[in-house]
């Protein structure tokens, strides 16, 4: 990667033609290629980021269908805990992005998740193509911060905690949306967020910037209309439940007892 292309919007391959994939194309440049399900991997462009805008459950197929010499260019931006999966695939150092923007419908312009506490935005990227990712997002009038790996790790866990806590507390209350969780059930979700933050630090050593609880509540208010539901369990809440199972198997106390109890309440475990 040359300095001339590092921070530019460059022709790229976009895997996935859904809402996010189309949005990535719309904020791109001539020469971008969108690859949809079942289509062959394109021969052009030969270099640059390969944005993976698919569901988590097809990531393994995406990697298999990508030529071995291009896999280091894959950019992962899915929700959930990706690091363990990527490590197992030999792609642990690949570019990753935390997406704090929303695309309501195919072809819509993305709405940036800026908040009253973070008007500069929360979307972030790290890795080889992080500068190119940020340039593309900026081209679409979206924020994006380029972070080093240790800083990104804390931000990654923070977003994982957000989606796991909001969805799980919301699932306890039929019909609740994210906005309800951040207001009516705020005490419940704050307690769970605090448990997940402290337990994650104890289990992994991850460090969080001050003000994480307030940041996450503020973000919830920007996506208040989102419905709640515990989804993609292995990638989301299943990560924390796995840490609980390991601790208990080792004769230690559950680092996330409230999380475990709430999962049992809805029959998720």
TrEMBL record:
Native source organism of the sequence: Ostreococcus lucimarinus (strain CCE9901)
| Name of the protein this chain belongs to | Ketopantoate reductase C-terminal domain-containing protein
